[in-house]
Amino acid sequence: MRLKSLALGAVLGCLCLSAAVAQEEPQVVRQNLMKGIGQSMGALGAIAKGEKPYDAAVVQTSLETISTNAKAFPDQFPEGSETGMESDAAPAIWENMADFEAKAEKLATEADTLLAAVPADQAGVGAALKTLGGTCGDCHQTYRLKR
Questions:
Q1: CA-CA 20 to 30 A from 32: which of 39, 50, 61, 140?
Q2: Of 114, 142, 137, nearest in space to 126 by CA
Q3: How confident is the model at residue 4 (pLDDT cuts 50, 70, 90)?
Q4: CA–CA distances in Å: residue 80 to residues 10, 30, 32, 34, 99
Q5: Distance, CA of 97 to CA of 89 (rounded, Å)
Q6: Which residues of 67-79 are buried (b: 16+ CB within 10 A; e: fewer)?
Q7: Is 18 marked as binding a ligand?
Q8: How many other CB atoms are there within 10 angstroms of residue 52's CB atom?
Q9: Strands, E assignment, 7-57
Q10: How do residues 117-133 score in pLDDT, each as one tens digit?
């Protein structure tokens, strides 16, 4: 009985360790960073469309998330992480890393600029969303695989 318990414990430990290691893979980290940006853009979009009322705290948090994640994003593309984990990263990233990093920096800079003067109403959020969305789209066109 004790041997079965030890074996079960070892199996469960290995499963937990596998999940923890998978969470640290750069593909997973960058997917989570992008999900955070996407959720933030969605929150801003809901305000801009009038689906949700203007909320300065939501706008501020969304812009902070976009800025923080965009700054961390380029570091999650080391050599050898081109494939795996259902990555949508295009090979062009590794072929032109400087441009990719510049596009991420541009998004972070735009978010920081908006944070310096947080949009004060629905129209302001809509204008901010256009600016941020254009930058996101520019990067996605070049560096995201089309599925």
A1: 50
A2: 114
A3: low
A4: 30, 14, 19, 19, 19
A5: 12
A6: bbbbbebbebbee
A7: no
A8: 16
A9: none
A10: 999 999 999 999 999 99
Residue 129 CA to residue 29 CA, distance in Å, equals 24
pLDDT tens for each residue of 49-92: 999 999 999 999 999 999 999 999 999 999 989 887 788 999 99
Q: Sign of the C-alpha dihedral, residues 45, 90, 75, 86?
A: positive
Is 136 assigned to a binding site?
yes
Residue 55, token pair as written in the block: 């909320």
Does 16 appear as a known binding residue?
Answer: no
Is the entire prediction scored with pTM above 0.85? no
> In order of start, what are the domains of the chain with their CATH numbers?
26-143 (1.20.120.10)
Residue linked to tokens 């750069």: 26
Length of the chain: 147
Q: Give the up-direction half-sphere exposure of residue 127: CA atoms within 13 A in the CB hemisphere.
A: 10
Q: Report d(CA 133, CA 45) in Å as an integer.
A: 10
Please tell me whether residue 145 adopts helix, strand or coil conformation.
Answer: coil
Query: Position of tokens 């199996």?
Result: 11
